[in-house]
Amino acid sequence: MLAYDDLLELAFKNIKHIAYPEEWLALDIEMSKQELFTLIIIDKLSEITMSQISDEMNFPMSTATGIIDRLVKKGYVQREKSENDRRIVVIVLTDKGKHLSQSLKNYISDYIRFIYDSLEEDEREYLFRILNKILVAFRDYKPISEEEKIKQNKVTKIQIE
Question: Is the model's pLDDT at 152 over the cut of 70?
Answer without folding.
Answer: no
